[in-house]
Structures are given as structure tokens and as C-alpha cells.
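Batch manifest line 805
LIGAND: zinc ion
JOB: complex structure
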Amino acid sequence: MTQGNERYLVAACDTSTDMLVCALGWWAPSESGAARVELLASGDHLCRRRANVELVDTLDGVLRDAGLSMADVDGVLVGRGPGSFTGVRIGISTAKGLACGANLPLEGVSTLDASAWTAWRAGVRGLLAVAADAMRGEVYPALYRLDEAGASRLYERERVVKAALAAREWAERPDAGELQLTGDGLVRYGKLFEEAGLMGRACPRELWWPSGEGLLLAAAADAPAALPGGDPALVLPVYTRLSDAEENERRRLGLEQSEGSRVTGVADELAGRHLQFRPMGAADAEAASALEEACFSGSGHAAWTPEMFLSELGEGAAVPRTWWVAHDDGELVGIAGGMVVDRDVQVLDVAVASGRRRQGIARKLLSHVSYDAQMLGCATASLEVEADNDAAIALYERLGFSRAGVRRGYYGAGRDALVMTADLPLRLPVDAASPEPTSAAARPWPAPAPSRTDAERAEIARRQPVLAIESSCDETAVAIIDAEGNLLANQVSTQIDFHARFGGVVPEIASRKHVEVIVGVVDAALEEAAASLGLADGPLSPGELAAVGVTQGPGLVGALVVGVAFAKGFAFAAGKPLICVNHLEGHLYANLLTTPDLEPPFIFTLVSGGHTMLVHVRAWGDYEVLGETLDDAVGEAFDKVAKALGLGYPGGPVISRLAETGDPKAIDFPRALNRRGDYRFSLSGLKTAVTLYIEQETKAGRTIHLPDLAASFEAAVFDVQYKKARNALRETGAREYCIGGGVAANPHLREMMVRKLTRQGIRVTVPPRNACTDNAAMIAVVAREKFARGEFADFSVDADPNMTL
Ligand code: KG4
Ligand code: ZN
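JOB STATUS: finished
ARTIFACT:
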């Protein structure tokens, strides 16, 4: 970092469009007018769908051409879109990785602004219309006035509209004759704009994409006085459009009665055997009011009546509202709600039952309310709190709220209300089960360099900490492991609550949540590692790591891409080797956390939400897959059965809890492919049998005994798993057995395998329960092995959603 210099070196990238934008520029702050920028080197080039492959190498090339390195860079700029969702996320995730890895400020810039400034730089003046491609027949339209001083926006907010509508809107303007068109939307929809008579003054085709110089100029116009940028945790994509699943949610939130009860159906009280969150429904009004009464008796806040809640949830509310409840074991334990006024969500109420405080429930409720609010276009949140309620004020401050004013006597004579406001998104909680990251409070960025004693430095060098990132599905996880296999940090931020209402993981939401939380989870892991190592000052810094590992696949491609892009930027900027890990190998290696001397040959059962496999591990890395599922994975079957019973998502934990008190022999469900020598699995027949059983019993008017059903279903699944594993052990002569994947967290499966196989002289290993469901500890174990062998990846690797063992 060159401080106090007249000029700074800035790296700029944007992969929102087919143009891979990557440039270096000098940035000279000025007290008056825009900062001066000077393009130093550019690697801008068209590259369709290969941005994640090419971005870091392009940056490397540009730096080399300029005779510079990451150590010379003072700040990072990134295009926030709008554009292709995945494209935007690749640029932002890489940029976040670069900024975190080299401890640099990061600034987000509108890609539309960058396009406008690209035209400006080429000498275009007058009225400019940008039509950026939004796919599906749509564009992101944006109007600018370009004069000698620069490009200024003639619109307030990015939006997405049908290309035909944009063409019509522009053609109908009185100044249509002056409009000069640009933007990559012209490639696909040029004919439409042509027919509207708008292409006559279109910019030359080479200007239709943003450029590195445009990005630099757009940022310079915004932040003339200083080097731009701040905390990389706070830079987020501009989407303008919801995932389809959320689009339906918005309608529900804005206009329609809460469909909350539909999400979990009639079986809410059964689903509620663990702490869950869902939108408030009419049936909650009585309980919500009682909770309020209990929470606020004696305070200045008058408790809400059931009627007030009902009117909040009623149809035709003048402004959109969002209300959430937390429930556990059929009991309401928390509520929070807010209404949307002018892009601000006013938090109306937060109440948590007295016995359930300090468990992160209020934070989670507020994160749901603020997430909905963002979906409804809010940029800020505000609330009132009694001025002497220190606990609540501290909670809100941790979420990013700050004091904005006081309402005297708001809660009655002498009882003032403190008004607090925050920018959205709120600082979302990392999983309540994980230690709370101390960085949740506003933190200085770039981070001050920690001071280390010589002994500490020697210890860190000896321990060779390897950081690993996992983002293949709906868990953002980061772990750090040392050379001896000790876990120094293990952080998981789960998104389950955000998918639960859709009955399964929504890929687009998963990708978005990963981008939102990845920096926070990495920071929390670096802090936890410093504590584990007993370092006196500051978190472990990226430069103190030995390597960076990441899950490359298999999994959801959009989710994987976020972790891979971040890891590449992070490793490159920190000057550390990159290690790619197969997620399935992670599930296998999780067994080393329990049995460090586990040695092939052995039999391994993988049972997760996406996979069901029986594997003969002949040597490390030498896998003979004996059999896989022909249809559903085991975890998937648990999820589908739970869904059929209205038990919510994910199904595994609920079913295993129900099964505790059930009789596994109560119902005789079929065991498929139960022949010797056949190692294939099939679960769809069982799933159908369970569904038929539910239908039959319901039709006959009998109540289903859920514990018996759950126990019998488990027995049918696990019987087959056991027999095939036993047969494989006999056939191969292996004397060791281990298991992995989310379903391996099931206590009955674990207990059965240990009991039955141990009796036959087999050594059985089961990973720690929290290392069965997706986590980064298992990825770190593999990464450490690969680090020891020097198996490093190029920066041109991409996510591979279809990897196998
Ligand atoms: O390994 P994982 O976290 O994600 C994938 O890689 O797929 O596995 C998730 C799956 C889900 O289907 C979930 O229902 C299941 O693991 N699961 C369980 C239990 N806990 C999670 N299944 C049965 N019993 C459990 N206790
Ligand atoms: Zn998994």
C-alpha cells in the first residue's frame, strides 16, 4: 500500500457482459472535479462464458505487461452489473477475493455507468441510451446526458424491461431523434430498435460493451477526493430482478394474504420440532399477541392485539408488509415484522420469548424481514427502541443500526424512544450455532497489520495453516486446518431458512446468499484461527496462510462458481497456491477427523442429498464405485417423504427426530434391489410406497402415527444400506468401513453400522456429526493432503458441477 502518494494503482474488472473487462489505471484524487484517471494497461476482450476461466490470468497478464504485481495495487474496482447474474457474481466474487487476499479497498461501480463512460471516452456527446442485454427478451435500459464534463444519469434506479417496451419508450420521447444507442442488448435486439427507428445514430459496435477505462472513469466521477472503496463485504451485485421463486414471494408479500401456512401445510406443529422460521399466518395472530403481552408487560410499548396482527396480514394493505415467526415444538417463540415506506423498511415489532433470548432468534427474524424488504426494493431499515433498553440497542448495533435521533416521551412521560437506522443488507448472522464473528461490528478496512512476536511467526510457519472454502449447495463454509490435521477454524453459514419456504434449495437464491456472506465467513474463520493459535493481536492474515483450498464440484454450478472465483482471487492476491477439492472426496476424508490412521483398502458409504454410493477405496485416490442409486439419493428420499408429510425442508433431521420414539417394525415398507452382488440402489419405489400409505390412511380416516412411519421408513432405507455394505466388505475382504454425507448424521444409521459391523470384526468409522452435512472442515482435510503432495491448481480452473469420484 502506497500511502500519502499523489496517485494510486487501481485494478478494475467487470464480467457482467460477454466483455471480460480487466484493466489497470492510475488514480489521482483531486479536491475539485473528478479524480484524474489514466489507463495504464488493459486486457479487455470478448469471451463468452469463460470469464471465470480467464479473469485472474488476464489480470496476471496485465500486471506483468505493466511490470507490476499485486503488491503494487492500491485498490480494486468492480462492475456490479446489472448483467448476466452468474457473470456479475464471477466478477464480484473474484474482486472480493482479490481485495480480501491483498487487504485492499473494494469499490463497486454500475456496469451501465461504465458503458456510458466508455462512449464518453470515445467522444460521444449528447443523449445516450444504453440497452444492456438482460436475456429472455429483456434489457436493462439507462439514459445518460454526455457533455464535456462527463456522463450524468437521467434515471434513478436500474430496472429491467422487455426490449420491445424500451424501444417503444425511447421512440416516443420528444427528443428521440437525438438518442444515440449503445449496449450489448443491441446485439440480440438490434432489429427491434431498428424497427423503432432508433438505430440511425447507434454507437459503433465496438463501444457496445463496458471497458476498463469506462469503469475507472465512472468510479472517478463518483469519488473524486480520495482513493475509492471500502469493505469488500459490503459490495453486492445489482440484480434488478428476482429469482422466479422469489418473484412469487414478492407478490405474496406485497399484495396477497400470507401463504405462510401453505409452506408447511397442516402439519406445522409437527414440523416445529426444531427451531424454524416461516412467514406469519393468520393462525399465528393469537399466539403472537400473547407473546407480545408477555414480552412487553410493564414497558412503554403497548402490546399488539390479535386484531392488529390480522389487519397486518390482511389483503389490500396500502403498503407492503413482511412478518416472520420463529417456532419451536409447536410454540411461537419469536416474531418480527416491518412495513415498507419509500424504500425504507420500518421495523414495527421484534419480540422473543424470555426463555429463548440470546440464541440469535431476533437476529434471524430481522434478517428475514430485511431480506424481504430488499426484495421489495428497500435500501434502508429503521426502528424505534426504548432509550434505556441497552440489550436491544446493542443487538441492533451489531446488525449495523446506528443512532439517528430521539423521540422524547414516545413511550409515555419520561420514556424516550431512540430512532435507529441501517443500510440494507443488515449484517447477517453467521449460523447461530457458530461462534459469533467479532468482526460483526463496523470494522476498519483495510485491516491494520497485526503485530506478531518472532515466536508467533515461527509457530504460524510451523503450523502451515490451509484455508478451505465450501459453497457447493446451501452452506457457505470456511475452515482452516494445520499441517498436523488440527482444525483451527470451522465456520458454517447456512441458508436453510431461506430455502425452507420453497421446499428445497433454490439455486439462484443459493448463489446470491453465497456472494452476500462469503467475506464474513472467511473473516470469522481467520479470527477463530487466531484464537486457536493463541495469537495476541488480530486475526490470521491471508499472507500467513500456506494455501487456499476450494470445492470445485460437484454441486450447483452457480453456487460453486462463487466459492471458486473468490478462492482464486484470494489465493492470487495473497500469493498462495490454490487447491481444488472434490466435494465427494471431502465427505470421504471427513472420516480422518475421527480416525486419523484410517488406511485403505476399505468400504465407504456416501449418503447425501445428491449422492448415494457404495465405494471400494483401494488406495487413497483409487476408487472403485461398486454401486450408485438408479433414481433418488437417500437424502433426497428423506426430503421428499418429509415434504409429503408437510414436515418442511430439509427432511432428514425432522424424520430422524420423529423416528426416535417410533417402532421400526410397525409398517413393512419394501426393500429394493436386495439381491446379493447387486450394489445398486433404488429409492423411488420406497418413496411411492410411503406416499401411497399416507394417502390410504388419510382416506380411511385414520391418523398417521408419524413416529412409526418415520422409524419404518428409516429402517427400510438403512437395512439396504447395511446389507450392501456388509456384502461389499465380505466380497472385497476389507476390514475397515466408513461413511459420509448428510444422511450419515442420522443417529440410527450411525449406531446400526457401528453395532452390527463391529460385531463382525470390522473397524467402523463415522465422522463427527457436524462434519457429515456440508461443511468446510472436510474440504480442508483434503486440501491439506493435496498441499502436502504439492498438488496445486492453475488460476484458470472453473467450477465443475459434474465431478465424480
Ligand atoms: O451432504 P449434505 O449436507 O448435502 C449434499 O451434499 O447433498 O446432505 C444433505 C442431506 C439432506 O437431504 C438432508 O435431509 C440429509 O442430508 N440429512 C439427514 C439428516 N441430516 C441431514 N438425513 C437423515 N437423517 C439426518 N439426521
Ligand atoms: Zn455434501
